[in-house]
Amino acid sequence: MGNAIECRNLTRHFGGNRKKEPTVALDDVNLTVEEGELFGLLGPNGAGKTTLLKILATLLLPTSGSVSVLGYDVQKDAQKIRPRINMVSGGEVSGYGLLTVRENLWMFSQFYGVPGSEARERIDELLETFSLLDKAEAKVRTISTGQRQRMNVVRGFITDPDLIFLDEPTLGLDVSSSRTIRDYIRKWVRDGSGKTVLLTTHYMMEAEELCDRVAVIDRGRILACDSPQNLKRGVRKDSAFTLELTPFAGIEEIAAVEGVRGTSIDSGGSKATVRIVTEDESAIADVISLISRKGGKVLSMTKAEPTLEDVFIQLVGRGLV
Amino acid sequence: MVGRAYPRVIGGVREPSWLFFDTFLPLLGIAAFILYYQAIGAPEVFAGFVVLGGAMTAYWLNVLWSMAAQFYWEKEVGNLQLYLMAPMSRMAVLAGMALGGMFFTSVRAFSTLLLGIIIFQVEMVVTSPVSLALVFVLTLIALYGMGMMFSSLYLLYGREAWHLSSLFQEPIYLVSGFYFPVRALGFWVALAASIIPITLGLDAMRQLLFGQESMGFLPIDTEILILLALAIFFIIGARFALNFMEYLGKREGRLTLRWQ
User: Fold this and answer.
1) Minimum mean pLDDT range among A122-136, A193-207, A208-222, A231-245
2) Cα nearest neighbour of B7 on chain A
3) What does the domain layout of chain B look like in residue ranges?
4) CB proximity list for B52: less than 8 A, separation 6 or greater
5) How far does B74 lie from chain A, in Å, by closest CA?
6) Measured between alpha carbons, how far is A91 from B178 in angstroms, rounded to an integer?
7) How confident is the model at residue B40 (pLDDT cuts 50, 70, 90)?
8) CA atoms within 13 A on the CB side of A302
9) Which of A155, A108, A137 is nearest to B4 (CA)?
């Protein structure tokens, strides 16, 4: 199989003039996604994920570099790419509230020229898969946020694209809805020959569970790109700890302790949970010493098997916030 | 085109209150002008000019707000990026909006015309139905073409283009002679205003409905030829403008930028 996506030295700047330097959203990105792959893009807010998706979706031009999608250049052949792609974003409010769920989906299918009977068949099938059949005749303005998001996901798939961009598709959804979407995505890639998904997500477990390969992006640069297993293997020589502490002022100084490669701190509530990746286990002694000096107290400490989140912390230096 | 016309039609059917607002409220506006003309003793034919202008206002407002500026709303709610990602022509989307709104706009226009004729006892004589229909159709094609061209601005700008739409709305009532013969503004102003298709469209319709009393600006045949040229110019121009502004929007990163 060929490549569904190929970015070579892709750079994208925003703004900038004689007085002000441009904002670099993507910096010399090289990325290849194979056809039939479920590919994840992980990065904190402002890392460049959405900019990259917009370029791939033919909505934005690169400042420099080359990008091809399904074998076509995004700058020259956008019209050849568009019939074969689709995009769904978490929390999107597209469509018209006055129309029913079925009518909205039918309208979007017509934008892609899906024949009427085929569109109706696909809509029914997908509504059933996503447990929305009983809401088919409900006006979109009357359905819940979760139902709306499931409808958006259906919208993305009714055109039967070869490549779909899913930008945090399970954002804010309950466990059951998220699972339905994840199961469908996995089945869609497995059953369709060469169907490709580019997924961005804030949920590490989701990326770990779904993706064949994952790229970690931060400040417009790809920091690592491999399968979740290989990425975790790379961290295995490091040590990952989860500490529960009483909150104290200066908790973020833990990240500066020698030998600490990255931290993720959740300090809301009466206790703080800190995930730490260290170069070797000895660094944890210095961490505990710092906590004591600052007046904090260690409530519990566990040494953990590295997860994708640890990979992320190690590469980016902080958690996904 | 059918896909985008669909929500307009369904929306109109599901919220029938528009029928009241679009049928009776425009009458208040034209009543004010007619009563004013009657008070100053203007010739009776001026009531006819106002009724005709009031009817055509429906199309002007539809072009300005329900088509040209519609991209602004679509951008704000996130529909625009889905439209632009889809493999359909941008003109088809806009034509769908126009077509979907055409029935409701026409109901407003014809009800204004009919009620205006009945209430204010306006006399009109259709001297040439074919010419009248031709002028009407050419005016609409040119007008909607201009709206499509104007909508391209929204691919790059947001609120700035919105202000431009607002700026356009009222002055056009004056310079296009919605409620009086445009010739009254003088040759050069009337000529400049002729770039807006509704100026010559209204003038030609006035001549065809009210004869000599209409104080026409140019001969009807000349106005039909100019309207034809405007229709071709705006439709072709819209195609280029939409492509060019989409390119600029993609280059500047403003195509799908919300809260502009």
Assistant:
1) A231-245
2) A99
3) 2-252
4) B113, B124, B202, B205, B206, B209
5) 9
6) 45
7) very high
8) 6
9) A108
A275 backbone dihedrals φ, ψ, rounded to 5°: -105, 130
Taking contacts as CB-CB distances below 8 angstroms, the residues of chain B near A59 are 81, 84-85, 250, 255-256
CA-to-CA dists, residue A108 to A112, A157, B79, B83, B95, angstroms: 7, 11, 10, 9, 16
pLDDT of res. B258:
67
Percentage of chain B with pLDDT > 90?
53
The length of chain B is 260
Q: Which chain B residues are Cβ-neighbours of A99 within 8 angstroms?
A: 6-7, 10-11
Ordered structural domains, chain A, with CATH: 3-231 (3.40.50.300), 239-305 (3.30.70.100)
Region B171-175 average pLDDT: 87
Which residues are A196's β-sheet partners? Answer: A163
- pLDDT tens digits for A276-289? 888 777 788 888 88
What's the pLDDT tens digit per position in A213-255? Answer: 999 999 999 999 999 988 887 766 677 888 999 988 888 888 8
Pull the structure tokens for residue A31. 């990325």
ipTM above 0.90, yes or no: no
Residue with tokens 């994952």: A214
- Asked if A92's CB is within 8 angstroms of B78's CB, the reply is yes
User: Which of the two residues, A279 and A292, has the higher pLDDT score?
Assistant: A292
Which of A294, A241, A247, A291 is closest to A267 using CA atoms? Answer: A247
Interval B184-192 mean pLDDT: 94
Strands (E) across A143-284 are located at 163-167, 196-200, 213-218, 221-226, 239-245, 260-266, 272-278
pTM listed for this prediction: 0.82
CB-based burial of residue A186 (10 Å sphere; 0-12 exposed, 13-18 middle, 19+ buried)? middle
Structure tokens at A237: 């020589």
Answer yes or no: do A98 and B10 touch at CB < 8 A. yes
Looking at the DSSP assignment, which residues form a beta bridge with residue B160? none
Task: Write out the H or E segment, with its range, that includes residue B73.
Answer: helix B70-77
Binary contact (B7, A98; C-beta < 8 A): yes
Query: Of B206, B228, B209, which Cα lies nearest the Cα of B128?
Result: B209
Taking chain A, what is the end-to-end CA distance rounded to the nearest angstrom? Answer: 36
Is residue A155 a contact partner of residue A147, using CB atoms and an 8 Å limit?
Answer: no
Taking the CA atoms of chain B, what radius of gyration do you get in angstroms? 19
